[in-house]
């Protein structure tokens, strides 16, 4: 018991020290972002131009605590896409920023997919973004496979709601099925990129995959064959 408590204390101390010394965490607090993850989306949008003046609908998967939705709202306002709808989705109930909406749901559930479709109705979704990550176990392969499951859930949603020409960005853990993920994305999108923002911690195995210009007429069987 003593050794476990000592390990827990040391581990917690390292995490706290990392937060104290983290430039992005300090900046997020100063700029009123809900988390340092905001700066990852800043980089992703700067590089891949996810949000445009023609963006009408955005889905933010893995919403909590809401930093990506904050960035999306800011970027859409700058692009004068003020009528765009932004919907956050997460297992954890969380109050959305003013101007956004939220539902509690599991992306691996058909019920959640239907709730998202019902929210947008006849409106199109132009951007699906996912910062989802399963609770890590410390076992690299298990964490990677859990990440792939979440990515597949997000892709199935995109096949249902993302307009032709739309974009998608997802976080994933690198591992054995990364090339298969790329191949699936290439079946859905005209352009596919992998990118690790500088705001990601160096020791993290997380990265992001970006799909641009969603192909028209691509069905589930074309991707998950």
TrEMBL record:
GO terms for cellular component: mitochondrion. The keyword rRNA processing applies. Residues 33-214 form the Ribosomal RNA methyltransferase FtsJ domain. This is rRNA methyltransferase 2, mitochondrial. Belongs to the class I-like SAM-binding methyltransferase superfamily. RNA methyltransferase RlmE family. Pfam families: FtsJ (PF01728). One of its GO terms (molecular function) is rRNA (uridine-2'-O-)-methyltransferase activity. It comes from the Eukaryota. The active site is at 171 (proton acceptor). The keyword S-adenosyl-L-methionine applies. PANTHER family: RIBOSOMAL RNA METHYLTRANSFERASE, RRNA METHYLTRANSFERASE 2, MITOCHONDRIAL. InterPro entries: RNA_methyltr_RlmE, RNA_MeTrfase_FtsJ_dom, rRNA-MeTfrase_E, SAM-dependent_MTases_sf. Keywords: Methyltransferase, rRNA processing, S-adenosyl-L-methionine, Transferase.
